[in-house]
Amino acid sequence: MTDVLTQVLGDLEAEGDRLAQLVAGLDEAGWRTPTPAPGWDVATQVAHLAWTDEVAVAAATDKEAWDEVVLGAIADPAGYVDEQALAIALEPGLLERWHRARADLRATLVAMPRGEKMPWFGPPMSPTSMATARLMETWAHSLDVHEGLGVPFDDTDRIRHVAHLGVRTRGFAFAVHGLDVPAEEFRVDLVAPSGEVWSWGPEDAAQTLTGTAGDFCRLVTQRLHRADTDLVATGADVDRWLDIAQAFAGRPGEGRSRK
Question: How confident is the model at residue 83 (pLDDT cuts 50, 70, 90)?
């Protein structure tokens, strides 16, 4: 296991533990608390994480099970994922199921041979890429649960993985909207929760993005409308990117309304 994978898995575990501790003591009414995602209550958010962790394990270890998921997604690209989460959310033992799925995913990623990739809904994923994607989703859905329950959410420097994914998926965001990917690189400078500045791209890039990492991560996970962020874009391509940015695979989402 590489040092990078070890770090990402540790941060993924910490994000998952934070959410698990929040929901562990909920009664039935608490689990049914609505969240900002239309039609999704707290249970649906956790069910989605459990299902996706299980599917990731299948993608790496069980071709037949993975193929079945792919066929389901092809048959109903707009509703399949939601349907799985909504169904699992009604089953007993949800938190225990997620605990098992998290442990199974970690073991699966650790055991994968170095250099091997697993199939996914977008490009094939290395163990580190999958762990990063799961951290991104865990963090984003935890935001929804915290907001739904009215519990404050403090960012940590673990969101560097989310920010990195948000920058790396720039080309995908343009392509999934049917737009040409800008040829030139951008300079991205984001202020971390700790105050450190995280940077990507050449220092002399003509087009730049600055702001806080927390707002950028919320934007690329579509948890915050662009107008409600502190992000500053310089250049037409960067400006366009902020309208379409997404760090997740699949079809563009509707995003959040302006506050």
Answer: very high
Q: What is the pLDDT of residues 122-145, one digit of tens each?
A: 789 999 999 999 999 999 999 999
User: Could you count the other beta carbons within 10 Å of the beta carbon of residue 87?
Assistant: 12
pTM of whole model > 0.85?
yes
Q: Do the Cβ atoms of 258 and 228 come closer than 8 Å?
A: yes
Report d(CA 79, CA 58) in Å as an integer.
Answer: 20
pLDDT tens-digit series, residues 148-157: 999 999 999 9
